[in-house]
Amino acid sequence: MAAVDDLQFEEFGDAATSPAANPGATTIHIEGPSESPTHQPGLPRGSGGEEDDELLGNDDSDKTELLAGQKKSSPFWTFEYYQTFFDVDTYQVFDRIKGSLLPIPGKNFVRLYIRSNPDLYGPFWICATLVFAIAISGNLSNFLIHLGEKTYHYVPEFRKVSIAATIIYAYAWLVPLALWGFLMWRNSKVMNIVSYSFLEIVCVYGYSLFIYIPTAVLWVIPQKAVRWILVMIALGISGSVLAMTFWPAVREDNRRIALATIVTIVLLHTLLSVGCLAYFFDAPEMDHHLPATTAAPNQTAAAAK
Amino acid sequence: MRSQIREFDSSTLNESVQNTIMRDLKAVGKKFMHVLYPRKSNTLLRDWDLWGPLILCVTLALMLQRSSVDSEKDGGPQFAEVFVIVWFGAVTITLNSKLLGGNISFFQSLCVLGYCILPLTVAMLVCRLVLLAEPGPVNFMVRLFVVIVMFAWSIVASTAFLADSQPPNRKALAIYPVFLFYFVISWMILTFTPQ
């Protein structure tokens, strides 16, 4: 009877592959990743096995592709189109913030946390909080530094809020635009495997600015050394998040261009933090509480700086 | 600016002006009471109106305005700045909560956010009175305490009205901008210094 079975065409319909009818056949379960198809030796494994793996392995990506297609289908003048950019839950936002604070080498922020669901909530509100954090703590720090001076009259310096808002929002939107344009241009010359959409780049930049919020609050401390240490720490963390995100996107390119891109990204970030520190926070002078003393102590204090 | 049913319109045409004004004032006053003693109720949402927020915003902006001697550079906020911050802040928060999937209408949310500025306006009045006394750290401590208490009151009041309209797993995302909004207004009130 075995010879007759070998010559017969095997049906792969439901009735034929039920375990009762055909106990020796391969059964394919598409239920979960823990299940694996049982292979019997001697049975045809060629194209059936590969289809197997494809179905099991790429189930998630099939679904996400379908969902991604459904997400962006509203035209851009409807409200639903913009709702897709706010499709995040509280725990997702917290996870993304946590990811920007703890850069792990080898883990890409975009692939790990954003996963083709970029949101605009994080970048917008982190920038808004940062604007007010910088303006308020700059004001507070200036007040504490000049506290004893007779000629100092406290002003809330409200103009600086608009200046801070312009700087921060311009940085968080124009730099990603320029970077995205640059990466698209390089993509047309060198085929990169990893490419980011504009919103993903905005998302990374927005979340990487989160570390500056506690930094700005701590900049109230009127010690130069403390402030510069804080700048170093914040720059280290957010710079490394950005560098590790964008390195895979330029890796296949010309070595010099790749390095120049990463260096530019980090340099612009440095410029932002140092610029904010210099503009919004007055320098803490050491001798501000000795205004009436003679020139000699002033000179020694100035030489010591 | 009131959401009343149409049938009564013809009968309100013949009443005296005093009746009309008193009815609107009573509605505004009733909502003020709801803000001062926040309970989960639908009154603020059902019959929204924007008179109360307008009155409160104008009062706050007038009190925050300094005389124009040296307020050109680096002074406190001008009238227009306070106005813009309050209204654009409220609009942004409303858009944010609608984009996150909340089922509250645009003007209802503006109404709630505007009415919940009432505690902070009261704080501004108290601060101006306290500033008539002699300046010093005690003066500042009193003002700080009053502003903090009123800030907490505003947050509690607006959360009581707004929280239910958000999807449950995004409540914190929708409430945080409200917190930031009232924090900025409290900062403006606290740092107000007269000449």
From TrEMBL, chain A:
<dbReference type="GO" id="GO:0030133">
    <property type="term" value="C:transport vesicle"/>
</dbReference>
<dbReference type="Pfam" id="PF04893">
    <property type="entry name" value="Yip1"/>
</dbReference>
<dbReference type="InterPro" id="IPR006977">
    <property type="entry name" value="Yip1_dom"/>
</dbReference>
<protein>
    <recommendedName>
        <fullName>Protein YIPF</fullName>
    </recommendedName>
</protein>
<dbReference type="GO" id="GO:0031267">
    <property type="term" value="F:small GTPase binding"/>
</dbReference>
<dbReference type="GO" id="GO:0000138">
    <property type="term" value="C:Golgi trans cisterna"/>
</dbReference>
<keyword id="KW-0472">Membrane</keyword>
<feature type="transmembrane region" description="Helical">
    <location>
        <begin position="197"/>
        <end position="222"/>
    </location>
</feature>
<feature type="transmembrane region" description="Helical">
    <location>
        <begin position="120"/>
        <end position="141"/>
    </location>
</feature>
<dbReference type="GO" id="GO:0005886">
    <property type="term" value="C:plasma membrane"/>
</dbReference>
<feature type="transmembrane region" description="Helical">
    <location>
        <begin position="257"/>
        <end position="281"/>
    </location>
</feature>
<dbReference type="GO" id="GO:0005654">
    <property type="term" value="C:nucleoplasm"/>
</dbReference>
<feature type="region of interest" description="Disordered">
    <location>
        <begin position="1"/>
        <end position="61"/>
    </location>
</feature>
<feature type="domain" description="Yip1">
    <location>
        <begin position="101"/>
        <end position="272"/>
    </location>
</feature>
<dbReference type="GO" id="GO:0000139">
    <property type="term" value="C:Golgi membrane"/>
</dbReference>
<feature type="compositionally biased region" description="Acidic residues">
    <location>
        <begin position="49"/>
        <end position="59"/>
    </location>
</feature>
<feature type="transmembrane region" description="Helical">
    <location>
        <begin position="228"/>
        <end position="250"/>
    </location>
</feature>
<keyword id="KW-1133">Transmembrane helix</keyword>
<keyword id="KW-0812">Transmembrane</keyword>
<dbReference type="GO" id="GO:0016192">
    <property type="term" value="P:vesicle-mediated transport"/>
</dbReference>
<dbReference type="GO" id="GO:0005797">
    <property type="term" value="C:Golgi medial cisterna"/>
</dbReference>
<comment type="similarity">
    <text>Belongs to the YIP1 family.</text>
</comment>
Automatic annotation (TrEMBL), chain B:
<feature type="transmembrane region" description="Helical">
    <location>
        <begin position="48"/>
        <end position="67"/>
    </location>
</feature>
<feature type="transmembrane region" description="Helical">
    <location>
        <begin position="112"/>
        <end position="134"/>
    </location>
</feature>
<dbReference type="GO" id="GO:0000139">
    <property type="term" value="C:Golgi membrane"/>
</dbReference>
<dbReference type="InterPro" id="IPR045231">
    <property type="entry name" value="Yip1/4-like"/>
</dbReference>
<dbReference type="GO" id="GO:0006888">
    <property type="term" value="P:endoplasmic reticulum to Golgi vesicle-mediated transport"/>
</dbReference>
<feature type="transmembrane region" description="Helical">
    <location>
        <begin position="79"/>
        <end position="100"/>
    </location>
</feature>
<dbReference type="InterPro" id="IPR006977">
    <property type="entry name" value="Yip1_dom"/>
</dbReference>
<dbReference type="Pfam" id="PF04893">
    <property type="entry name" value="Yip1"/>
</dbReference>
<feature type="transmembrane region" description="Helical">
    <location>
        <begin position="174"/>
        <end position="193"/>
    </location>
</feature>
<comment type="similarity">
    <text>Belongs to the YIP1 family.</text>
</comment>
<protein>
    <recommendedName>
        <fullName>Protein YIPF</fullName>
    </recommendedName>
</protein>
<feature type="transmembrane region" description="Helical">
    <location>
        <begin position="140"/>
        <end position="162"/>
    </location>
</feature>
<feature type="domain" description="Yip1">
    <location>
        <begin position="35"/>
        <end position="188"/>
    </location>
</feature>
<keyword id="KW-0472">Membrane</keyword>
<keyword id="KW-1133">Transmembrane helix</keyword>
<dbReference type="GO" id="GO:0005802">
    <property type="term" value="C:trans-Golgi network"/>
</dbReference>
<keyword id="KW-0812">Transmembrane</keyword>
